[in-house]
Amino acid sequence: MEDKSIIADKLDDLEELLLPRRRTLLTWWLKIFSYLFLFTGIAALAMYPMMFLLENDYHVSLYGLESSDKRSFIMLAVVVLFLLKGVVAYGLLLEKEWAIEVGLVDAAIGILVCLFVGLYTMFGTGSYIASFRVELVLLIIYLIKLLKMQAIWKKSPAGYK
Q1: What total number of domains does the chain contain?
Q2: Does 159 fall in a domain?
Q3: CB atoms near residue 88 (< 10 Å)
Q4: Considering only CA atoms, which of 56, 49, 39 is closest in space to residue 76?
Q5: How far is CA 120 from CA 67, 96, 158, in A?
Q6: Is 161 part of any domain?
Q7: What domain of life (predicted)?
Q8: Are residues 27 and 145 in contact, defined by beta-carbon separation less than 8 angstroms?
Q9: In terms of residue numbers, what domain contains 27?
Q10: Would you say residue 92 lies in a domain?
Q11: How much is the pTM?
């Protein structure tokens, strides 16, 4: 009976050795966007307080949300979205266990914001035509990719601890 237990343990060890490292699961475009959003997340973290200290206003935009007033809710929302994207990029690039779950939340929030902006343009401004956001298509592709990677990501070993 113990022989079966030893064999099962050896098979588990072999399965773990055959799983790819988490970083290899990231496609080239996912790596590029991760580095880009890691940089923008760090920039947002630095620039938002600097706007108040230096009395400067910067124009920021993400998913159709645009603002150049540092005291507006939209500016704060865009900065928080960039910070969220930076956290996801950090998690993906450093192969963190939680990266996929936070990435799924990021993708869902992005899709909801894009839909809201499109519908607001249609109903809020009275244009009768919803604005189409290319980001919406990219976010759906991103969401699908993360969903496909989720199971393997949890089983795969991380290169960084």
Answers
A1: 1
A2: no
A3: 28
A4: 49
A5: 16, 36, 42
A6: no
A7: Bacteria
A8: yes
A9: 2-154
A10: yes
A11: 0.79
Location of structure tokens 């773990």: 16
Write the CA distances from 125 to 68, 80, 117, 121, integer angstroms. Answer: 20, 25, 11, 5
Give whole-number Cα distances, 91 to 74, 77, 96, 127, 158, in Å: 26, 21, 5, 40, 11
Hey, is 128 helix, strand or coil? coil
Distance separating alpha carbons of residues 27 and 64, to the nearest angstrom: 26
Q: Any long-range contacts for 14-21 (C-beta under 8 Å, 24+ apart)?
A: 16/155, 16/157, 19/152, 19/155, 19/156, 19/157, 20/152, 20/156, 21/95, 21/156, 21/157, 21/158, 21/159
| Ordered per-residue pLDDT tens for the chain, 161 residues | 455 566 555 555 545 555 667 777 788 989 999 999 999 999 988 888 888 888 777 888 888 888 888 888 888 898 899 999 999 999 999 888 899 999 999 999 999 998 888 887 777 666 666 667 788 899 999 999 999 988 888 877 766 54
Taking the C-alpha atoms of residue 22 and residue 157, their distance in angstroms, rounded to an integer, is 6
Nearest of 102, 116, 113 to residue 146 by alpha carbon: 102
Within a domain: residue 40? yes
Please name the amino acid found at residue 109: I
- For residue 112, which amino acid is it? L
